[in-house]
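Table S4 entry, Branched-chain amino acid ABC transporter ATPase.
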Amino acid sequence: MIVVDNIVKQFGGFRAVDGASMEIAKGSITGLIGPNGAGKTTLFNVVAGVLKPTSGRVTMDGEDITGLPPHTLFHKGLLRTFQIAHEFQTMTCRENLMMVPGAQSGETLWNTWFGRRRIADEERALKAKADEVLEFLTIEHLADHKAGQVSGGQKKLLELGRTMMVDAKIVFLDEVGAGVNRTLLNTIADAIQRLNTERGYTFVVIEHDMDFIGRLCDPVICMAEGKVLAEGTLAEIKANDHVIEAYLGTGLKNKEAVGA
């Protein structure tokens, strides 16, 4: 579905992503792991159009999407969330969801004068859709709460809910578990799994919680120093000497020392 081909992203003399290549299969939940500074979020930003690559190519279903802006990719069904939730704090959780779909009739001055019935019909449909999403995520009790006043984990659920308000094909989740308690993290994992199996969503997940990755993700891709280091099941990744070396500074060096 997504093919990342030899992507380089350079900031001055520093290569945050250094020739990374990978394929994301349709219908998969792919985990992207690696030590801090590995280039994971920068790669996300390149694929999602937040940053333009220095070189390389990204395709989606065979179409070259390299460097397309986020709003264009949004309409193609490619969405991403951020490590820090970006909610409209003074709006309710329901209103945050209702804001997502584009080209709403109420956005034009003409319709506010002459299309009030159409606007009202759309708002009723959006409200019903938002309430369905909140129920799916088991946070329907927060519908009328201000989004800025709910917990960090509930904000992450709300971000996931935004992807459900449009026809998302692939969703990039950046550290969805950061700062989230275990109970809510399990709720988030359940929602991702259901969206994958019941609605056909494809996910790519950056996460440091290996239990979370192990529960959801196959395959798992490990990055280090801007490059793709290894790919496989989580068990294979954990047993990979190059991965151990990247995380702990041990593994290959110790094995070579023992051999010597």
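The radius of gyration is 20 Å.
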